Every structure is written in structure tokens, then in C-alpha cells.
Amino acid sequence: MVVPSLKLQDLIEEIRGAKTQAQEREVIQKECAHIRASFRDGDPLHRHRQLAKLLYVHMLGYPAHFGQMECLKLIASPRFTDKRVGYLGAMLLLDERQDAHLLITNSIKNDLSQGIQAVQGLALCTLSTMGSAEMCRDLATEVEKLLLQPSSYVRKKAVLTAVHMIRKVPELSNIFLPPCAQLLHERHHGILLGTITLITELCERSPAALKHFRKVVPQLVKILRTLVTTGYSTEHSISGVSDPFLQVRILHLLRILGRNHEESSETMNDLLAQVATNTDTSRNAGSAVLFETVLTIMDIRSAPGLRVLAVNILGRFLLNNDKNIRYVALTSLLRMVQSDHSAVQRHRPTVVECLREPDASLSRRALELSLALVNSSNVRAMTQELQSFLESCPPDLRADCASGILLAAERFAPTKRWHIDTILRVLTTAGIYVRDDAVANLTQLIGGAQELHAYSVRRLYSALAEDISQPPLVQVAAWCIGEYGDLLLEGSCEETEPLQVEEEEVLALLEKVLQSHMSQPATRGYALTALMKLSTRLRGDSNRIRQVVSIYGSCLDVELQQRAVEYNTLFQKYDHMRAAILEKMPLVERGGSQVDGEAKESKEAQLSETALVSTEPQASKLLDLLDLLDGTSGDAQPPPPLDPSPGGALVHLLDLPGAPPPPPSIPNLRVFEREGLQLNLSFVRPSGTPALLLIMVTATNTSGADVTHFICQAAVPKSFQLQLQAPSGDTLPAQGGLPVTQLLRVLNPNKAPLRLKLRLTYNHFGQSVQEIFEVNNLPVETWQ
Fold first, then answer.
1. CA distances from 251 to 193, 194, 221, 288 (A)
2. Which of 218, 380, 453, 610 is least enclosed by beta carbons within 10 angstroms?
3. How far from 327 is each of 323, 344, 357, 646, 676, CA to CA, in Å?
4. Reduced to 3 states, what is the DSSP secondary structure of residue 105?
């Protein structure tokens, strides 16, 4: 006996009544068999019922592809009940990846030309949901005719379909330009909302449409003013705000039309001020309208007073209880801090309060904004607040906070002593989180402040005696004790509390560092060198130092063993030269050609055959770059050894960019462009070193979203030598903010044609991006 097919309601009840997944699959398999049999029999009266059941099965995640052709048959049927289910099935079962979707083009065209509103609505909904580019081109004229139909129901759906067509086929813009001007006179809010969306899509995709619709700015201003001044309307008001969805859409369109256009911006200034002052922010609807108003004010050429008003609105948002509103306020203020720094500064106390937010996203945004607000006038107060935050902030924020404080101190330090104290406090609080160059920067700073040598060595000795678990702090302290240990023992510093230190205490502390399990090999190297230098600075017997040095002559660490062996040899064979060799380092000028000796000892990079220096700390990420160009340069001769003398090429190669180079005579080159991110190369060849090429990499961002965690890496053939200096930052603000620059130094002793391979990694629009490409079209002036 054949079991009869179930009705849709009975099928739903039976599926929901299944106690196990196996029972559910059994019910669905049986019913799908009945549905297939019915489709094969060609029963026209019950086809729509069978397809309705199949769509329910599809919604549960089971295969239903065998119903695609039945959808086409139902769409072609003259009965409305069939068309309704057929169009629904087409929207669910068909998409532009299926060739069958093209077969319904004629059916949709016929239904659009009918005068039945319900059928036209079905056809328009289906076209706007799954219409491919080919279908949009074929049916664009039909949709254009429906845009001016008397029925508001059809016009609204036609406008939304036109939006889908513009997104699929931007070249159809010219077809929809004339109807849009007429549709702006509509009183129906649904049609008006769709029209504003359509105009926005047209302006974003067509410069001609943007120019065309700038003429309707006064009309848009009039519509928005009417919405703002209209009283309560039951049909359109949400939380006391008159149609906030339409207001937000109009403000978004005004932002696009007023961007970089003085006349349009002037027309909408008064309206934006009215919206900003009259909108109630006690509910989310009002906050949404007000936030869109702020974004519009920021983007157009608005009056200075209006921009201050926008900043004040964001400042009020920071006091809101809603975390989302506070987050968007912090993000927007971060974008405005470059252009309206003084206005944003007024809200500095509120921003600092946000640092204590338990929410990680809010505290991170508040940290970024706080660092951006630091300047020469508030550096002391802001640094104190940031240091307090550093002591209690989550571990994932400590690296950013510590690096930000160090950069701010370097840029705006009022005195050298304050600068040293600030770095020392950061190293004491979060030493393991600071950047790799913090040690070299502090040693260079102390070395250049001759009047603070005694003060610095005493502060560092006290800090080291309290804590030896922070590697950067230990390294700087060891370097400073080795250089200025005689000042530590003199006790003549008036700027610190009296501190009596004996020679044995200093040596015992350095030995403790050497023996500690927390000390890294590089840290032990600093301590061993400090002991060796103290052998010429202390007045007592150096036998204890000699014994410690000899112990490490058999150390497992090769670097440490080599140092110990060399120092032992210095004691045994060249003791008469020890004092001259270990004398104090000369003063180092920032940006000069000298390199701080002790800081360089642990940081020195060997220029190998495939010279590649990265600004990223994890060397493992660069291994795949080392031989990017190996395949074509296998026969190249190794470069000649660099002259190690002070006047040689190595000193010039490691020069910091202290003096500005001469004006470039080599044309600039754009090597990368994607989604608003651009990478340009500019070239300079110093006259004194013809084999050296300086390449300045400049990255800019003109998109609407920030580019974060930006890293640029490079590789050259083996016949070249390459050094990458640290970039100016790793974040590119949106809308053409401050660029990120990085200097590449390429040594080309053989004057071979230069080829460069670049790898870019960054986050943009919430996605992680990696690009690897080769630059072969460098100007001939770069190597000839």
C-alpha cells in the first residue's frame, strides 16, 4: 500500500516530533521520495504544495536541488498561487552560480509588464535577490519604467531593485539618473528612503552622477529640515525621533555630496547645526542621527565652529552609559585629532577616564587617543596618567602603552633628566614589553647627557638592586655601571639621596645577574662586559673580575664564550693595553655616524649574502623572504668586504638620517595600490658614496578605514646589501592621514641592475592582508 504524501503542516509536525536525528532523516527521505514522484508525474494542481514542502526541507539544511526546474514551471504558470511559491523557490534554490537562473529572465520580464501589482512585486523581489549581471542588463529598462508607476507599492520595490542593479552593473547608472530627480518629490517615506539609497550608490560609483546630484543638495536639505522640525508622527517616529532611518540616509548622502565641494558644504552647514542642537540623545535612535551628523561635519568643508560642535557632541558621547556609543566616540575623536587637535584636547580628562574601562576594546581605543593627545604642553601630566595605567593595564595592552610612552617622551621631553626618569620607570614597570630599540635609545640618551652620568648610574644601580627580572632594565643598568662605575663609587651626586656603594657590592650584583636563571644570553653579555670595564675603573684588585671572566670561557653560549675568551686574552697578553681599550665611550650625537658601542654589541646585525633586516621582532616570519631572489642570482659574485674604518662604507651604511639628503634627481615610483593604500618609492644617491642608494618608502591611506599593523619587508639579490631602518609607525589613518615612511639603504658595489622584492602585511577593513610582489621597473639612475 502506497503511503499518501503529507500536507505541509503535517510534515512540519512529524519532523518536529522526531525524537532522534535518524528519525528526522527517515521522515524527510520518505517525503522527498514522494515529492520526486509527484514532480515526475507532472501534477500541475499540487506542484506548488510539493515545492512548498521541499523549501521547508531546504531550510532545514537538506538537499533540495531537484526542485530548481519546478520553480521555473511555477513561475511560468498563470496562477498567482503557483507564481508565489515559484518565485520564493527561485530566491532560495537559485543563484547566479546556477545556469538555470537565466531561464527565468523572460518570465520575469513578462510579469513586470503585467499590470498586476502583486505579480510585479514578486518579480522585483526575486530580481533584487538573485539577479545576475546578465539579468540586470536585460531587465534594466523594465525596472526603469516601473520607477514612475502610480502604485507606491511597485515603485518602492522597483527602487530597491535598481539599487541591486547598480551594485551588480555600475555602468547602468545613466539609465536611473532621470527618475531619481522625480522620486525625490515623493511623500512616501519608504520610496524616499529607497531613492536616497539609490542616489548614494550612484554617487559612490560614478563621478558623473556625483556631479549631477550636487544640484539637488538644497532639496535634500529641505527634506531633512522638514523631518527635524516635524512633530510626533505615529507612522514614522521611533523613540521620539522622526524617521531616524531616513535622516541617517540623507546625512550619509550629504556627506558624499559635500566632500571636497565648498558650495555644497556651505548649503548644508546651517542644517547640520540645527540637527546637532535639536536631536534628542536620550535614546539610541537620536544618538544614531547625531553620530551620522558628526561624521558628515567631519567629512565636508564645514565651518570651524561646526567642527568644534561635532567634537563636543563626541565628548558627550564619552559620558554615555552605552559602551557602543563610547566606543564610536573614541574612534571618531581619534580620526579628528589630527585636524582638530585643540578641540579634542578639551575632552582629555574624559578620555583619560576611559582608560580605566574594564572593556578591553574601550581601553585600547582610549589608549590610542590618549597617546595621540600628548604634546609639549601636557607631556608631564599625560605621561603620569599613562604610567599609572601601565602599572594596572591588561598584558595585551602593555606593549602598546609602553611603546607609546617611550615615543611621546622622545618627541616632547622637556628635559633630559625627565626623559631618563620616564624611560627608567617604564623599564621598571613593563620592561619585557618595550620595543627592542629601547635599550639602545636610553644608552644613547645617557651617553649624550654628560651632566647626568652620576645621577643616571645611581638611579639604575638602585633599580637593578631591587629587580633583575626585567631584561631591558638590566641591560641598560649593566651598560651604565660599566661605563660610569667610578662615578657610582664617588658618592658626589647632589641630585639623589646619599648612596654609599662599595666595590664588592657592585661586583656581587653583576655576578648575581650573570648567575640568574632569568638572564638571557644578551643580558649576560652586558654584565660580563660591564665587569670587564670595571676592571679599569675600580681602585681595588681585579683578580675577582679575572676569575669570573675565566669561568665563562667554557660557557655553552658561543657569543658569551667568545667574549670571555677575548677578555681573558686581554688580561693575559695585552694587559698594558686594557685601560686604553676599555676607556669610556665618546659622546654620541643623535643622528651622527658613530654607533654606541655597548648597545651595538648585542644588536649588531651581520650583513650576509642575502642581507635582510626586519623591523618585526619574530625572525621566523622572515625566513621565507631570505631567498626570494635566489633563483636568478646564483652566479653572482659575493660583494666585496666593507671597510670597517670610521670613514668606510659600513659607517655610512649604518648612519642614522641626521642631515637631510640633497633633493632627489631620480623620479619617484608608485609600486603598489589597493583599496586606497598606496606605496611610493623615492630615491637619493649620496654624492660621497656612489654605490649607496637611499630608498624612502612612503605608504599612504585614502580609504575610509584605518590600516593597522602595517609592516613592509624587502629582499634584494645576493650581490647587493640591504638595511631597513625602523618605520615611522605601523598605523595609517583613514582619509589621507599621516603617512608611514621607512628608509631602505641598498649597497650596490657592482652597479648591477637593481631588483627589489617587497612583502606587505597589514589589517584593513577587519581583514588581514599579505601582498608579495617584485619591483623590476626601477629607474636606471638607481644603479648606473
1. 12, 14, 9, 11
2. 218
3. 6, 15, 11, 53, 25
4. helix
The grid coordinates of residue 219 equal 532639496
* Amino acid occupying residue 595: V
**CA 708 from centre of chain:** 2
Q: Are the C-beta atoms of residues 165 and 129 closer than 8 Å to each other?
A: no
Q: How many CB atoms lie within 10 A of CB 700?
A: 19
Distance CA 134, CA 121 (A): 20
The second-level CATH assignment, the architecture, of 669-782 is Sandwich (2.60)
| pLDDT range class, residue 55, cuts 50, 70, 90 | very high
pLDDT digits (tens, 9 = 90+) for 144-170: 999 988 888 999 999 999 999 999 999
Q: What is the pLDDT of residues 60-115, one digit of tens each?
A: 999 988 888 888 889 988 999 999 999 999 999 888 777 777 788 889 999 998 88
Are the beta carbons of 315 and 351 closer than 8 angstroms? no
Can you give the pLDDT at residue 157?
Answer: 93
How much helix, strand and coil, in percent to the nearest 5, is found in the chain? 60, 10, 30
Query: Sheet holding 756-764: strands in order across?
Result: 707-715, 756-764, 767-775
Q: How is the chain split into domains, by residue range?
A: 435-582, 669-782
Cell 629607474 found at:
779
CA angle 440, 441, 443 (to 5 degrees): 65
Q: Return the amino acid letter for 135.
A: M
Task: Name the pTM for this structure.
Answer: 0.64
Compute the distance between CA of residue 377 and CA of residue 381 in angstroms, rounded to an integer: 9
- Write down the pLDDT at residue 720: 87
- Cα of first residue to Cα of last residue in the chain, in angstroms, is 92
**Of 476, 515, 507, which is closest to residue 602 (Cα–Cα)?**
476
**Can you list the alpha helix ranges (DSSP code H) found in 279-378?**
284-299, 304-317, 323-336, 341-345, 348-354, 360-373
- Residue-wise pLDDT for 392-423, tens only, equals 888 888 889 998 999 899 889 999 999 999 99
Maximum separation of any 2 CA atoms in the chain, in Å: 114
